[in-house]
Design goal:
The chain has 146 residues and is an alpha+beta fold. The chain has a single domain, classed as Yope Regulator, Chain: A (2-Layer Sandwich). The protein has a 6-stranded antiparallel sheet. The longest helix is centred in the C-terminal third of the chain and has 27 residues. The chain starts with a helix and ends with a helix. This is Bacterial sensory transduction regulator. It comes from Megamonas funiformis YIT 11815.
């Protein structure tokens, strides 16, 4: 387990935060081996949206939320993609993208030195994502169902 992940694991244990499942990457690639994924969720209007915090040997910590699991059958995909691009222009801290699995994801990257992880900051930013989604989620749902 990499140092950032060890520090975050200790932070959530010390603060009795129990809604994380830890997954260590098992791979022959040394950099991939150091990746640790903390699985959790963010709750938005009663919906539990899958979320992960990814920590590896890079300078970044990734916060990722699956906002919409599948847009494949959406009628107005062009309008949806236009809105995704508009969101990416308007918001600096979070970026939306469509995954290869047709899901809409939100990412936030936190620059972080390997030996200097601030667990409280990670949790604060995860909460900020929740606040952001509470503002934007109804708009995504309108696009999805119209």
């Amino acid at each position: 387990m990499n140092l950032k992940a060890e520090k975050f694991k200790a932070y959530i244990a010390e603060n009795n935060i129990t809604n994380f499942k830890v997954e260590e990457s098992i791979n022959n690639n040394e950099e991939e081996n150091a990746r640790v994924t903390f699985h959790t969720y963010v709750k938005v209007f009663g919906q539990k949206l899958p979320a992960v915090i990814v920590m590896d040997e890079s300078i970044y910590v990734i916060l990722r939320v699956q906002v919409i699991p599948d847009i494949e059958y959406m009628k107005n995909k062009d309008e949806f993609i236009r809105c995704v691009n508009e969101m990416n222009i308007n918001y600096k801290a979070v970026k939306y993208y469509l995954g290869a699995d047709n899901a809409l994801y939100l990412d936030m990257y936190i620059p972080n030195k390997n030996d200097d992880l601030d667990g409280e900051l990670v949790m604060d930013l995860l909460n900020a994502i929740t606040v952001h989604l509470e503002k934007e989620y109804p708009n995504w749902m309108k696009l999805l169902w119209n």
